[in-house]
Fold this protein.
Amino acid sequence: MRTGDSMCQRLRISGMFVITGLLIEALCLVWSRPIAFVVLVCVGGTLIGLGVLFFLYSLVTAPAHATDSSCAATDK
Amino acid sequence: MPTFAIVILVLFSAVLAGVVAVRPAITGSRAGKILAFGVLFFLPLFSLMAGMDNEMERSKSTAFCLSCHIMEPYGKSLHIDDPGYLAAAHYQNHRVPADEACYTCHTNYAMFGSLKAKLGGMRHLYVYYLKQQPLPQDIKLHEPFNNRECLHCHLGARSFEQGATHNADPATLPAIKGNTLSCISSGCHDVVHNVGRWGDKVKFWDGGS
């Protein structure tokens, strides 16, 4: 797998974690029950945290100039 | 920030994260990299903080506490038509904010008090959903009620500082302030909620919120 593919894949995975966490957070905000607080913190917070950490991990482990063109190529 | 605004922010963040997830190629440009950083780092964390803050504020409300079935008798005790009932007297006379009645007395007015109170609330949820629920009258405080919570409002108040009973013995007031003489368990203000011990003669006030 090329480094660009890998970076794109990581961005997608990170994005999926963040999106899922944010959607759970949105549901918890409109769900007025005490358990919503726990779900928001434990599930939503964990997923968002995982997404953010995975994104940061992708940045620090990505080779220099890895994404600029190859990611675009895989996306076409 | 109102709840609907936070929901819109959260959904907006999710849509932008979706754009990056579906089209990661946009991170090829400098603007795309900045967008990705904002969308996958800054916005999610900001949204999470805003959401948690909103939930923390909402969890202070009387309605939130009383939304658990097991707390119903405690909510009912706030409407007892008898000034001898401490919680009812405070609630009905707005000595505590009626919409944050439970939290005002049961939070911890020390450093990180709100956080400690909410962690205690997590334990309530654990018991409520995963353990056998106790009867309402069997619910006990995590730790003895600290006078600090009463003194948060009453300290310096004329009715407290110059009250006849509080000054009948010169040692009483310092003992109360030093938490060595409990306000509620020394036989002075010991009728608080008294759930399960109301008897037949107790009446309820139907006013208030």
Observations:
- Chain B is about 55% helix and 0% strand.
- The first helix of chain B runs from residue 3 to 22.
